[in-house]
Amino acid sequence: MDVLDLPYGVGMRIQTNCPIGSQECSNKSGTVNGFVSCCPRESTCSTSNGVYCCPDEMEESECRELVIDGAHCANETWSMFASGLNGGLFCCEAQDIGWWGKLGGNNGYVGCGPDGPSASSEYIVTPMAQSECP
Description:
By secondary structure, this protein is mainly beta. 10% of the residues lie in helices and 36% in strands.
């Protein structure tokens, strides 16, 4: 397996509830500022250095490597962003703005929303191209 097809890929951040057909991964990922992380219900939440939506039987490290190599959101309607922190990836709903902020040292957070960031220490990021799914 060289890359993972949908519904596997990079997980989403959102300020409210996960969209229909998704599950919340926040209890594993340590989100901040009221955000939740989500993966499609057909996948397993992997929260090692980001949120990745993986097959049930796959090790987190293998899944993360495959997701990064064939980078795409776990849902084709989401937009993908790079966080600016350790090359981390995250996805938002297509109409939302993505941003990241620093907490100190190499620690930080990402967020998504229709209005963009609310603090001057948060940085808007541009959506990036996603790999084609096989």
